[in-house]
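Please, structure for the following, as tokens.
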Amino acid sequence: MQQAAVNLPTRVRVGSRTVTIQQRLGNGAFGVVYKVKDEASSTVYALKDVLCLNASALRNAVREATTLNKISHQNVIAVMGADQFRDSKGLHMLLLTEYCSGGSLNDRLARPSSEEMNTKWISQTAAALAHLHSRGVVHRDLKADNVLLTATEDVKLADFGLAREYIALKRIDVKQDEGSWLTSYTQYYMNSGVGPVHWVAPEFFTGHYTEKADVFSLGTLFFAILERDFIVVDGKAIYGAFVNIRGVGKLGLGLAMAKVDSGISITFSSRAQGSNAMQRVVLEALQYDKNDRPSAQEICDKVMNIRQGVRLNQQHPETETGSCC
């Protein structure tokens, strides 16, 4: 295993656990992620380290992360605990989660995958978001980088409900109300080299964010799985749902709807994967008006029905009289 430079001490305490840092996995949008091992149980976890500029926001961020560890779903990454740590660089928030050895879905989309695998990713992500919404948690930062994969390429939805807290930690003057958070979110991504937030809903840019904005982002994620379209930012491919704007180039669909024309729509190309029925579900999530979008639970139900229908046809092909699509 290749070791990487570690900015934290080799041993840190997160809640009741003492963990040893084994490897630096990479930098996320808000912090550095490490692979760590619990000294008591030898269980491997992931540890996110967020360097805080706003010390007053730290208590709320740790409290929010601790609350989120009560959410349990097979496709939502388990939050094991949160803590704080101070060193010469400043105050750090430490977030301990289960470890996903398969990396991010965004990286995985660079390689081919079967229809069966695509459908699994779509159904598991839909189930995860529907569960979060049923618990009153809005993700706010749903994108392929925040969908992690296990060794068997099962989905674990990560960083749920923490975007606002992360932003508060990274900005000195941020306020907690929704409008200022949206402004800070946009500014942070544009200033951090990632560029415009291509995965968000059009209403995001007018300062209104509800769980239906998560549904739009879910649609961009599903579109990415089936179409494999991307843009390149600082040498990294970012997968999503994009439209070509004359004189501008590729923009995320929500951004184009908000800034260019609310009537802009998107279609799948002839090379896209997925049945007609699955593609229709994706396009329903990508409607401009949030009231025209289904809920996450409705999307989950439709996707599960499609998946079940495919399985039945595979098991009993002789009974198939026509296509549901």
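The longest helix spans residues 115-134. The chain has nine helices and twelve strands.
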